[in-house]
């Protein structure tokens, strides 16, 4: 089912939780609602579920305007953050519950529930009570319960936040697998950018109730619309340097240093120029330049950490600390002066007042 | 806090506990034990506290006493009349009070008032409500064309009057306990049930009732025990009498009457222990079934 949000706004007393959100979600896609706490992502999900009623705007499920439709009539399934499995019912009864409410004959309901349990691989646990299940198993039951009545839309509210790191990885692959097997339109709320990046077709990044960017995860990572998007995605986070642009509109001068950098392309909107910029470079876009003739940033090493297969270099450029992921082959010690090159096309330039990305 | 117990400290602790212990031992433990022994005194001089003979005669007396059986029957009738109705009514009211309604605090206070007022004082008001000529109840029934009922003087209506009073009196306590239980139910279950397509009644039936069952279980045990022990209401409502023609004589009234009316302490104690046994058995049965309601 195609979902359309038109100017959706949600106000609570004096705060605006969601501010004129316009999004179209295509059928069969998995979309993540991503953002820091309090950005309005859960509110948006609750509006989709019908648990909140939008203050303004129109919400369409397919062609149907659903603003005033109660949750029980929306043909949706939802997985809650703490799963909300009915503690007094067995796994089988939990999964059957939505069918029982829909007055499906008991035999058929049982067959469908078992089929769904098999899909999420919990068919050996049907007689257990939720309290006898592990977190991952509860999660699977919750997904089965949400899917059993064949809803048109599946909503997941931070479904992985209560699981440990390894299980989280496993369950997010499971969610992706199940979603693709069933082919259901799915909306997934998370504050974990890695989670969102790894399983979604599209990511909707929000901040303070406003949409920041809505695009495929890799596009969002590579072509952030603004500084917030660039900083929110990526771990370790992107390095930001205050900068000026020289008169030729091609040369960036880093503040407090004499380092300069040539842009490969002219900035997209020359009218937005006001003189103050911020240069953003992701840690993995640095490399150690050994050829002293080539351009690069001269930095002083503070510390080198070995993290798994990479080395994380903490260094100082003028007064600013930066992080770079470098090959572990090169031996660097504290205090060494090294030259860091930037991979071509990987520098981002942001307007320092509006935060807009000026290069894409 | 986890100091090693020394003699000094233990003495200090005993000293702190002493006032409470003295009261409990004098007014609870001693009477319990004493009345147990008393129930076997068949020939007793209470002026000199001399026991001439002991035996099971007291038990024989009450088991052969039709009045005892009648009072036991009345008590059972009272329990059956009060407990289920009281639980259902208080659950409904508690559910309503748990909603976001106006003047919620006011309503809670109103419903809780009967619990904190004196039975005797309230019974006087109820005697007026039940009055066959000037009573409010008969007035309202009159509006629906029902002819006046002799609530307090007709043997068939004495027990229903008592049941009505007892239900009203117990509502406040039950509602408060139910409200606490309702508030312990995670709202997420209701949200989940909504999404799963459950309407208001289905949510009440499938979420509220089962998740509240530990509370309901607790209330039913307390109510049954309290209902078996009913006395004040009988005494006050019928002006010291056990209802017209003994129609509202409960077991505790029987005990009271044997003790203070006939000064037959042995028989009174024996009847008290029979009541204890009945309550004990009922509670055991409940505990047995209660294991199934707890999830």
Description of the molecule:
The complex is a heterodimer of chains A (360) and B (295). With 360 residues, chain A is α+β, with helices and mostly antiparallel strands. Chain A has two domains: 3-231, P-loop containing nucleotide triphosphate hydrolases (Rossmann fold); 236-351, OB fold (Dihydrolipoamide Acetyltransferase, E2P), CATH 2.40.50.140. Chain A contains eight helices and 20 strands. Chain A has helices at 41-49, 91-101, 106-119, 135-147, 165-182, 193-199, 217-222, 227-232, and strands spanning 3-12, 15-25, 30-34, 56-61, 64-65, 76-79, 153-157, 185-190, 202-207, 210-215, 239-245, 251-254, 260-262, 277-281, 286-288, 297-307, 310-317, 320-326, 337-342, 348-351. Chain A is elongated and about 80 Å long. Chain B has 295 residues and is mainly alpha-helical. Chain B has two domains: 7-57; 65-293, MetI-like (MetI-like fold, Orthogonal Bundle), CATH 1.10.3720.10. Helix content of chain B is 73%, strand content 3%. Chain B contains 13 helices and two strands, in the order H-E-E-H-H-H-H-H-H-H-H-H-H-H-H. Chain B has helices at 7-38, 57-64, 66-97, 104-116, 119-129, 136-143, 155-183, 187-195, 200-211, 213-228, 232-237, 251-261, 265-293, and strands at 41-45, 50-54. Chain B has a two-stranded antiparallel ribbon with strand order 1-2. In chain B, strand 1 and strand 2 form a beta hairpin. The longest helix of chain B has 32 residues, at 7-38. The mean pLDDT of chain B is 89. At the A-B interface, strand 6 and helix 2 of A face helix 8 and helix 9 of B.
